[in-house]
Amino acid sequence: MVTQVDIAVVGVHVLDTHIIGVASIPDGSEGQLVETIRMSPAGTAGGTAVVLSRLGARVRSYGAVGADPLGDTLLTLLQANGVNVSGLMRTTATQTSASVIPVRPNGDRPAWHCPGANATLSLDALDLDDIVHGSHLHLGGPEFLGGTAAATLLKHAKDHGLSTSVDILAGGNPGLLTWIIEALPHTDYLLPNDEQVLGFTGTTDLELGCRALIDAGAGCVAVTRGGDGALVIVRDQTIEVPAYAVDVVDTTGCGDAFSAGFILGRALGRDFAASARLGCATAAQVAGGLGTDAGNYDLAAVDAFAQNQGPG
């Protein structure tokens, strides 16, 4: 166990329902048999929290969940994976955030999503002094707080000696970047995907886009590229890490898994390249199952997988 690493995860918590084997949406009121229907904890905070806990970190989640059966299920699943949920407030204003994800035989995964309680989260609802009782703060979905509030939260963490990371839920567009840009100078690790980087910066060159985000204040940009692995950019380094070969079941949550592996690698003192390799190897574990909590894996197993298999 990596019990010495205490991480606060703040932001978007979602209950995902995966449906495997959806060839099409039936006409009218007709039905269709499918292979599997499974629920799992997800979101740029919730999914990352589960994977961090699986890897051995002590994890505390903070955010908003509806006072409804969906919320009961989400909290139960988080707790079953070792996540401390005492920082998750319950609200009667709206339902728990949830997604339904039909996974087609070719791996495509369109989704229906209800933002729900995540949209009610505010800085006033967070116990900032409790959040900073640890070594790292991960903020998943800064767009829900807004740039000014996200910056306040991240600066508070930095002022108390924590490292920080940010993962963005929404798609990339310059307007969203403008909305959250105040948070970047207080972000040690920005963890977007390639489409977000290109959309935020309006460039077709991924490295140039990452460097534009560093110029805007981020200390490091570690960007996922799907089957092409990850690209890590710091001011004086460019690091490419390939993906690991795996029989893919569902790629939902792979970005959250990469974030967890990368964050934990840095917290354990691994360099940028080794942390990105841990992120990619962790993402491969999640891609091989259904949801962030599928299967059995821990840090030792992920490290062994990375060492034995090598990049694909």
UniProtKB/TrEMBL annotation:
Carbohydrate kinase PfkB domain ranges (all copies): 26-294
Keyword terms of this UniProt record: Kinase, Transferase
Coiled coil: none
PANTHER family reported in the protein's UniProt record: RIBOKINASE, SUGAR KINASE
Gene Ontology terms for molecular function: kinase activity
Designated name of the protein: Sugar kinase
Stored InterPro entries: PfkB_dom, Ribokinase-like
Taxonomic source organism: Mycobacterium asiaticum
A GO CC term assigned to this protein in UniProt: cytosol
Entry keyword annotation includes Oxidoreductase: no
